[in-house]
Amino acid sequence: MDRIYKVIGISIALALVVGFALCGIIGIVAENPNNELEAMVIGFGLICVVTSVVCFFKVRNILTVVRAKDKPLSLFDREIRILDRIDNLVTKHGFSFQAWDDRYSKGVWAALGTSENQVDTVRELSSGGDNDMFYATDYVFSANWLPYVIGHTLGEAILALENRLAQLPSDQLNRESDWADLVRDAIESLRDATDGKSYYGDKLPDHLDALPKTFEAALSAKSA
C-alpha cells in the first residue's frame, strides 16, 4: 500500500509541475501574437498532462497486482488452488468425499470413494472397537494408492490426499479407470469380510490379505 501512495504522490507532483510549466509557457507566448506557436505549446502541455494521468493509472494497476502476488495466501486459498484432483473427482466424476475426526485421536481422515457407501464402510470400521478398527485400518493402509489418509489437521489430511492422487497416472483419475475399479474391489472386499461380523460378536471377520503396496503392483495383480 505504501508503494501505491508513493506512486500517487509522484504522479500528482508531476502533473502539477507540468501544469505550472504549461501556464508559464502560455503566459509567455500570450505576449506573442503568433497563434500557431501558442497552439503548439498548449497541445504539447495537454499531451504531457494526459500522459502523466495515464502513467499514474498504469503504474497503480501494476503495483496493485504485484501487491496481490506478494501477499501471503491463506491456508484456504492455498488449498483451493492446489486441490485440482480432488475437485475434479468430486465435481466431474461423481466421487464422494468425506472427512472425519478419528475416534482414537490419530488425527483427521480425508477419504474419497466412487460411492458414499464405500467411504461409510471405512468410516464405520475406523470408529469401531479396537480390534475391528485395527483390522480395517491395517488393511486400508497396506496400500499407498487407496484414497484414505490421516493428517494432524483437516488441511493436512486434504493436502495428503491430494498428494496421494498426484502419484497416480492422470488418466486413472476417473470412475471408469483401473484405479477406480481397484478401489471399488478393495473396499467391497473389506465390507464383505466384515458384514455382520466383529471381533466382539459371534462371527469374526474373514481373513483379508494385505493389498498390493503400490498401484503398479495392484494393476499387475489385477491383470494376472
Cα radius of gyration in angstroms:
33 Å
Strand content: 5-15%
Mean pLDDT: 80
The first-to-last residue Cα distance is 63 Å
Number of helices: 9
Strand order in space, largest sheet: 1-2-3
Order of helices and strands: HHHHEEHHEHHH
Query: Rough shape?
Result: elongated
Overview of the structural elements:
- With 224 residues, the chain is mainly α.
- It has two domains: 69 residues; 148 residues, no CATH class.
- It is built from nine helices and three strands.
- Strands 1-2-3 form a three-stranded antiparallel β-sheet.
- A hairpin with a 6-residue loop joins strand 1 and strand 2.
- The longest helix has 36 residues.
- The radius of gyration is 33 Å and the shape is elongated.
- The chain starts with a helix and ends with a helix.
- 19% of the residues are buried.
- Keywords: Membrane, Transmembrane, Transmembrane helix.
